[in-house]
Amino acid sequence: MKARCEHRPKVVDFAGVRRADSRCVLTLSDHLRWDDPDQVSQLQDKLNEYLAFIESGEIYQTYPDAREREIEIQDVCKHLPTEGDGIPFIEHASEEIRRAGIHFAVRSLSEMEREVV
Questions:
Q1: Which of 22, 76, 87, 92 has its CA 20 to 30 A from that of 45?
Q2: For 44, phi and psi rounded to 5 degrees?
Q3: Smallest Cα–Cα separation from 96: which of 59, 48, 54, 49?
């Protein structure tokens, strides 16, 4: 993936175009544990910020490479979702994001690290 590691804490953590499928991937870095009482609300806020960034068209001004590409939001988790609040929240978020015409993926940080090494 050709990555632009421009850090924008209020909007997008990382953005790039994945070579394998040419999607523009917006990655959010998710470090909280699922037993943290703030996890769901903070992730929901962050996902809403990403959606607003895409739906407003700001993505195309900030990342011109996103034009005419499918878009994916990728949540890279230090801790994968758990049965309690995590999995139901991710399933609901995934459904809503896909309904908006945007791809959504959840990956573990350890999975990403193995791909780099």
A1: 22
A2: -60, -45
A3: 48
| Residue of 61, 54, 48 lying closest to 93 (CA atoms) | 48
CB neighbour burial string for 24-51, b if at least 16 within 10 angstroms, e if fewer: bbbbbebeeebeeeebbeebeebbebbb
* 16-63: pLDDT as tens digits: 999 999 999 999 999 888 888 888 999 999 999 999 999 999 999 999
26: nearest Cα among 88, 42, 60? 60
Distance separating the N- and C-terminal Cα atoms of the chain: 14
For residue 105 the two structure tokens come to 């993926």
Detail the DSSP E strand segments found in 10-110: 14-17, 24-30, 71-77, 103-108
Structure tokens at 97: 């994001």
| SS3 assignment, position 48 | helix
pTM, entire model: 0.85
Backbone angles phi, psi at 43, to 5 degrees: -70, -40
Distance between CA atoms of residues 89 and 103, nearest Å? 16
